[in-house]
What does this fold into?
Amino acid sequence: MKSSTETLEDISVPEAQACILDRIAPLDAEEVKLAQALGRALAEEVRANRDLPPYDVSAMDGYAVRAADLIEIPRTLQIIEDIKAGDTPRHPLQPGQCARIMTGAPLPPGADTIVRVEDTHALENDQVEFPVPIKPATDVRLRGENMRRGDVVLQPSDEITPGTIGVLATVKQAVVKVVRKPRVAILSNGDELEALDDPLDPHKIPDSNSHALMAQVQALGIEPVLLGIARDKPDELTDFLRRGLEYDVLLISGGTSVGVHDHVRPTLTALGVAIHFWRVKMRPGHPVAFGTLGRTLVFCLPGNPVSSMVCFEQLVLPALRRLMGHRRLFRRTIPALLGQAVKSRQGRTEFIRATLSRDESGVYVVTPTASQSSGDVLSMTQADVLLVAPSELSELSTGKTVQVQIQETAVWQLSPDT
Amino acid sequence: MKSSTETLEDISVPEAQACILDRIAPLDAEEVKLAQALGRALAEEVRANRDLPPYDVSAMDGYAVRAADLIEIPRTLQIIEDIKAGDTPRHPLQPGQCARIMTGAPLPPGADTIVRVEDTHALENDQVEFPVPIKPATDVRLRGENMRRGDVVLQPSDEITPGTIGVLATVKQAVVKVVRKPRVAILSNGDELEALDDPLDPHKIPDSNSHALMAQVQALGIEPVLLGIARDKPDELTDFLRRGLEYDVLLISGGTSVGVHDHVRPTLTALGVAIHFWRVKMRPGHPVAFGTLGRTLVFCLPGNPVSSMVCFEQLVLPALRRLMGHRRLFRRTIPALLGQAVKSRQGRTEFIRATLSRDESGVYVVTPTASQSSGDVLSMTQADVLLVAPSELSELSTGKTVQVQIQETAVWQLSPDT
It folds into this structure.
């Protein structure tokens, strides 16, 4: 991992992401129960503890037969047994015999093929007629077909999805070793801020950023701690920052400007934090800083609500996902046609709040929201994607294909398309 | 909402989805704290409780000026005050005067424009030179520009995202009325099943489905209750089902086949459950049933691990999201080119496990996983999307555009594309 004391200034988004990620390794491992494991990254490889299926089983409800008996059809066979899942067959099949069998039940010795119940005619006296030609081995799942004892079935860093939980339950891992979650602290900063529980003061600005950041962190499965609001008094700020630096990650909202009143950066430096970069060529979100103290990551995020959220998305989110041990660190992007022309300032990456829709032929179209003001937190509820306007272009014309980052609501859609 | 006692048989996926959703309304409301609200649906409209910004504020660090003073440039003005966020300006600006101002700070009376600090030259004696022409009203955020007191800012059924949390904190809703979550019970069923805590028995099949279903439910933000494994004894099954029917939703894994040993459907019927459909034209997942008792929804899911998960995705997931009050009920689909030809059986919708990648020009390509066996739970960890093969086609050729449903891992990607 990189370590350097130089502060980069006014760098590109990819440079900022690399600067951050180069300094992060996954956190240490912990053991959790299966019911707490969803969304975590595995910290160990997992092996199969048995063959699956454990024996040759039927894939259908029907009859277990000897294929050799059905070379000439129609043919009538004698049912000698009923086998359901969980049973142990008692009688080997002799020529002319078959067994009624359920999905998942073991084949009796001698049987090699399953005939589905809908391809048969039940007769009297436990006899059944087979009028349809059959291919040997049809609808049989062979022992060990899905996994063999000792096989590596899951790898370290695999993200634990519902499917992974299914596999872990299959190999009977009631407890699983995963990468632990980062402990995240959020600090707001500014004399103008009014806390959520304060009475309304028309001269103050409600502190929304720390709650929006809380939710962004929660969306990754991490429960952060809100430290509160530090006022613009050096001693108070020092105390707050000292407390925040005990966490794995400290997010500081506000106090990233260059003004004479800004004490955040000098106080961090005085506490020993190395500031690795300051300002990123992006909009919104230009005044953002990143530093470290030992293994603690510190992000100074802009005070504008939208800038704060967009900086979190581009810079903090991949950092938290790497700490959690994940391989996939970035939001899924979808190509979409631009529904209206977009102007941006060359030399910086713009993240434009936008909504995703489909045209009559089903192609994705993206349209910027009316307001792009970085103070307008409401616009973040109207957007379901962030349209990425690359730094090398200053204008994107209508109909051009752009990439959009899907936000929480865009993971879902109104109709199924099936 | 529909009510009927007829059982539909072998219906299409859209018919099954409509049959389910027509019988569901969002659950009742409850109040939760802001820290518990993420991912829920709002149960009430939310109005702004103040103007925002509460007064005209600076959007930048710089100087508050009278635009009339800068008609001819360069011009030097006298700094009469320092204003930071949270301050109340003390002196109206007179001609020839300006005020140093921070982002978010209120404009002093008389000021109408902000000049960014980087477009100025600081001189001695609290004087500053303005060498760049300026447009009036630049970088001023007007009072009420983002929201006005009394405006409806959020609507019922809005999904609570981090941006919504920011808005709720802005209007100081520390407690918010949301649609309550459904109480979900999961029951496994079958003599062959071995519970997670049971010792390994080579003749049994590990019960993975109830845990995979648990995780699928958890992924929607709901903590389900695992009732355990009902053995194939009518009395025991009746007891289990009676307990499960006390929940909002009962998911029954296994016991959907037509065999003589299957007691689930008759027992449900005996307990008063109306079965609305049985069998859906889909693969995997054909043997699936849906019923209701009063307001309780009952889903009988197939015993094959993959069939169970795919049925959950297509039928249970939208039902749970509607109960939670959401408008967007279905997984996002992305168009992708087919990397290899796919055969499917005409007359049913196939959901093919597949992986998403990009070709060298950035276009999405989808490739089926090697195993499509419905017993192969491992294949669900290898797939990040479900490729939808429409029921009206029997073959999809390489290069054709298909829709893929994104699963948990596909919400994320390896590189940022910025």
In short: Chain A has four domains: 8-27+181-323, 32-52+146-179, 57-141, 333-411.
